[in-house]
Automatic annotation (TrEMBL):
Protein name: Small ribosomal subunit protein uS17
Keyword presence, Ribosomal protein: yes
Annotated function: One of the primary rRNA binding proteins, it binds specifically to the 5'-end of 16S ribosomal RNA.
Organism: Persicobacter diffluens
InterPro entries hit by this protein: NA-bd_OB-fold, Ribosomal_uS17, Ribosomal_uS17_bact/chlr, Ribosomal_uS17_CS
Gene that specifies this protein: rpsQ
UniProt keyword annotations, A-Z: Ribonucleoprotein, Ribosomal protein, RNA-binding, rRNA-binding
Disulfide bond keyword on record: no
Highest taxon, organism lineage: Bacteria
One annotated GO molecular function: rRNA binding
Length: 84
């Protein structure tokens, strides 16, 4: 039996003030059910950053993991692009 793959998201870091934690904002474009216009929706995730090597504005990939704290259920996989 094959297990489901963990979810992955790509987003931008909005906060890194915590120790070993980051806040990642993931934005997606959703088509409005009635008007058909594309709307930008965003969700914030708390992620685990073991080495504290992320900065605000970095684009990162996060993956789902077991609960690490009250509201941390994601971990940092890689830094795709550093902020300018």
């Amino acid at each position: 039996m094959e297990r489901n793959l963990r979810k992955e998201r790509i987003g931008v870091i909005t906060s890194n003030k915590m120790d070993k934690s980051i806040t990642v904002q993931v934005t997606r474009r959703v088509k409005h059910p009635i008007y058909g216009k594309f709307v930008t929706k965003s969700t914030k995730f708390m992620a685990h950053d073991e080495n504290n090597d992320c900065g605000i504005g970095d684009t990162v990939r996060i993956a789902e993991t077991r609960p690490l704290s009250r509201n941390k259920r994601w971990r940092l996989v890689e830094i795709i692009e550093r902020a300018k």
